[in-house]
Amino acid sequence: MKTDGPVAAPSNFSCLSLSRWSLRLKLTLGYALVFAVSIVLGAVGVYVVSSASLTASLDQTLRETAAVAQASIETQNGQSSFSPELKATGDLTIELLSSRGKRLASIGADEDIKEDKAKPPPLQLGAMGFDNNRVFTQRLAGGQYLRISRPSDTLTELLTDLARILLYGSILMIAVACLVGYVLADRALKPVDAVARTAAAIAGRGNYRERVPAMSGHDEMARLTNTVNAMLDQLEHTIEHEKQFARIAAHELRTPLTVLKGRLELTLERPRDAAAYQKALSSMQGRVDALIALSESLLALSRTDAPARLEPVDLAAAVTLASEQFGEIARTSDKRIELSLTESWVSAEAEGVQRVISNLLENALKYSSGETVKLSVKSQVLTVSSAGAGPERDQWTRLLQPFERGSGVQGISGSGLGLALVAALTRRWNAELVPQWSPARFDVEVQFQAARPPTGQATLVLHTQPTAHSTKGQMPL
């Protein structure tokens, strides 16, 4: 019993072979196929129209000749014949037939041919083709027929020549179309080749500074090269940023780890009593807590490159929560936190907003020269105010980079990641971080995008004792 397995193999092979063809070849063959079908249909149309036109012209000549011949028919003694003045030109044959088709008279090329030498055309009115002749038959009064015929060899030869010209011309045009189509496809796909080569070079050598040659104009290929180059620019910026970040992070982590290792070695250098071990471990615990805080800040900073999941956030409630968390720290450092809040819903991420407020409030408590740090919320703007001159204006941009700290603050603990994380988060939410300097105060504003509060959300109302520093209500802590 035969199976169908071998039958499917050629189809799979054809599909596999087609998948290996280059895009240029596929485009060229597709273009050539469409062009060939168009040319063939056009050639067939030209041939059919030309054949019909030439045949109609020949039939019209036969009709005109019949009209002249009909006017030249004479009848004498009951016998019909053509007038002596009637002459058939060229290869025309004019015949006068009886009602039964018997030839009564003829003029022209076949007038001497006897009827038994060839089978005569049927008595069919109108024009028709018969035995390489074009025949026109017309019925006359009295039941007689007038038949005009002419060989169609010339017409056949002319149509044959036309068919040959159309055939050879179509083949030539299709061949030229294939060549031109391949050239155009090759030219159009050169930018794609350049993109592929550049991508291969980047993957092979790791040289992400290479770029695709830019194309002039505003067509699809120009947009492709410009888009790929823009993507490579962003890729280079991201890679350089990550490399720099990794170098700085490694350096910042190495220092406390080295200190911690040194203290461990010093502690284990000789036997000690329990109190000495307790003191050493307590000291190292502080270092470990600092390392954990640094690691968490690094992790949070690395996550800012992920797509943002924006949601409505109650900014006033977030500020209230942060002020409660830092209340004990403020009292320990003989400072107080004042709030001036109005209900304000912003488009951000709740956890990120809490971190932004905490970082700005922590910096204000560390570096403020006064006793009061003020947090205010109004019209989707968070403002953190502290006494003192703040950082130098020309240093602000640098301080927004990871592990950068201001001059003269080396004695104050910190990792240099607070402002960098705030800047990254505000960019992530399309918010703006705006510093403001005044002679006696330094303010940092975060201008958020507005958001609608969730349906059914209760309005936040703060009932506090008013002070000279608040128009909406303050909460001294």
TrEMBL record:
| HAMP domain: residues covered | 186-240
Native source organism of the sequence = Deinococcus detaillensis
The EC number(s) attached to this protein equal 2.7.13.3
What name goes with this protein? histidine kinase
Q: Which domain of life is it from?
A: Bacteria
This protein's record includes keyword Transferase: yes
Q: Which reaction does it catalyse?
A: ATP + protein L-histidine = ADP + protein N-phospho-L-histidine
Q: Does the keyword Membrane apply?
A: yes
Q: Which Pfam families match?
A: HAMP (PF00672), HATPase_c (PF02518), HisKA (PF00512)
Which keywords belong to this entry?
Kinase, Membrane, Phosphoprotein, Transferase, Transmembrane, Transmembrane helix, Two-component regulatory system
